[in-house]
């Protein structure tokens, strides 16, 4: 679910792995809906898997939904709850799910209360590079006084949605206005089950 740059790479990986089976693809982009997933991810042969706009068209065949839409937890809470209520497990690339109780206590509690399946938030960062890797590298140490992890990236080399999310290309005034605004309006998504 979600065929941006991360979702497309994930769909291709799922299709190529012999231990996984891609059974559906969901995205709300009208330019993608109706196309065979092979045409979108660059496979040579058609799969017969047509991209649909809503989860209700694919959830009966799936065991797990790989959710790669946005990172903002409040924007995806309703989607995750509906996935769970339909008897599916969900793996998400939302960084905010690595520890949602800190910034989004209400949404995290809502997810816990409705949970009937498994929810896994995963990704490179946070998750691996800034969390598990430092733990792994220090696991052989007998004594650790401090671990300092710092991230510096060149956003101009990153995917377009990431650049947009961090305000790349905005004027300084527009950037400050976006930071000061209520960002919840930026994350309005339709019901995925329609």
Plain-language structure description:
The structure is a single chain. The chain has helices at about 5-15, 35-40, 75-85, 105-115, 130-140, 160-165, 170-180, and strands at about 25, 50, 65, 90, 120. It is mainly alpha-helical. The chain has 3 domains: about 5-125, 3-Layer(aba) Sandwich (Rossmann fold); about 125-150, no CATH class; about 155-185, no CATH class. Helix 2 (about 35-40) links the parallel strand 1 (about 25) and strand 2.
Quick take:
By secondary structure, the chain is mainly alpha-helical. α3 packs parallel to α4.
What does the secondary structure layout of this molecule look like, with pairings?
Blueprint: H1 5-16, E1 25-26, H2 37-41, E2 51-52, E3 64-67, H3 73-85, E4 89-92, H4 105-114, E5 119-121, H5 128-138, H6 160-165, H7 172-180
Parallel strand pairs: 1-2, 3-4, 4-5
Helix pairs in contact: 3-4
